[in-house]
Amino acid sequence: MLRILKSFAAVGIAVGALTAAAHAADVKIGFVVKQPEEPWFQDEWKFADIAAKEKGFTLVKIGAEDGEKVQSAIDNLGAQGAQGFIICTPDVKLGPGIVAKAEANGLKLMTVDDRLVNADGSPIDSVPHMGISALKIGEAVGTAIADEIKKRGWDIATVGAVRVSYDQLPTAVDRVEGAITSLKAAGFPEANIFDAPQAKTDTEAALNAATVVLNKHPDVKHWVAFGLNDEAVLGAVRASETVGITPDNFIGVGIGGADSAINEFKKPAATGFFGTVIISPKRHGYETALNMYDWVANGKEPPALTLTAGELALRDTYVDVRKSLGIE
Ligand code: FCA
To answer: What is the pLDDT of residues 148-182, one digit of tens each?
Structure first.
């Protein structure tokens, strides 16, 4: 009898495995990002692709730079029989519209990086989200800058700071506010922090915004810069170069750690891009894709909110930090 039961169990497992495999091939998941040309998002896609290969589902990658493209991306996914998608939206205020569109197309919805908001600006907490611990990571940026100011022996009261800002995005506000908190705790005067609002979250927009600030304060000798990502800080670094500030007078610390930062670290001579807090495209790409797959295939809903950590890396440590995060 025991033997019969055992063989039944074996058949059961085999059949179970077969249905799971057949099911995986039917699963189609979208991964929509706001800036497909940005290395961070390419890395997210790369890691999501690994999850798709591992589990055997189809991953549909779509770039959607504005609201209209988001709408058509969702309709498109619905039309091709996808069951769910992950999105980093170009505008968090599209939140209610995205939720409605996903529902109309029968698609499960999860967000990554940028969390959708309601009309009143509060987060839409019914949509599972994975983002970075923005305040904490911002604080790490501020601490890294403050430590380096000390190391260089600058008088902190005379240093200028470029706050490259994108205040319509809550995670961006948290990141720069975190940096400011640490800087102020280290004695940085608030009056020396100058806002450089960028029109878009890319390097060019940050360069334009930072140039205005630097030109307005030609008397300031030492500068630091922070922003929501590496691109924002790289923009400030490029701006410093165009107005003739040398790297020994500039400390920029970004957030990200993808190719934008790495290419800068690989340059033969150090630039004003001093460091970056590396965040994990593996968690944000691979893990979100797996979460969505588990939801579609096994009915297991993703955690409502996951906030991931970051780790500071400099020119001479980034290789090791990336290795330790499993993203090398
Ligand atoms: C936002 C930024 C990206 C990246 C991501 C984690 O979407 O725009 O550059 O930092 O958060």
So the answer is: 999 999 999 999 999 999 999 999 999 999 999 99
Q: Which of 41, 44, 47, 88 gets mutated to test ligand 1 (max ligand atoms within 8 A of its CB)?
A: 88
Pocket perturbation via mutation, ligand 1, pick of 91, 130, 135, 229 by most ligand atoms within 8 A of CB? 229
Whether the predicted pLDDT of 13 surpasses 60:
no
Ligand 1 touching residue 203 (CB < 6 A): no
The answer to whether 228 and 166 have CB atoms below 8 angstroms apart is yes
Ligand 1 binding pocket includes 256 (Cβ within 6 Å): yes
Bridge-based pairing state of the strands 273-278 and 311-314: antiparallel
Closest CA to 206 of 180, 238, 183, 179: 238
Portions of the chain given CATH number 3.40.50.2300: 28-127+281-307, 134-279
Residues 307 and 133: their CA atoms lie apart, in Å, by 5
Give residue-wise pLDDT tens across range 53-93: 999 999 999 999 999 999 999 999 999 999 999 999 999 99
The answer to whether the predicted template modeling score (pTM) of the entire model surpasses 0.85 is: yes
**Range 134-279 has CATH code 3.30.365.10:** no
Nearest alpha-carbon partner for 180 in 189, 171, 170? 189
pLDDT digits (tens, 9 = 90+) for 283-322: 999 999 999 999 999 999 999 999 999 999 999 999 999 9
- Going from the Cα of 34 to the center of ligand 1, the distance in angstroms, rounded, reads 9
Q: What is the CATH T-level fold of the domain 28-127+281-307, as seen in this structure?
A: Rossmann fold (3.40.50)
Banded pLDDT at 20 (limits 50, 70, 90):
low
- Cα 191 to averaged position of ligand 1 atoms, centre (Å): 28
Is the pLDDT at 272 greater than 50? The verdict is yes
Cα 233 from Cα 226, distance rounded (Å): 6
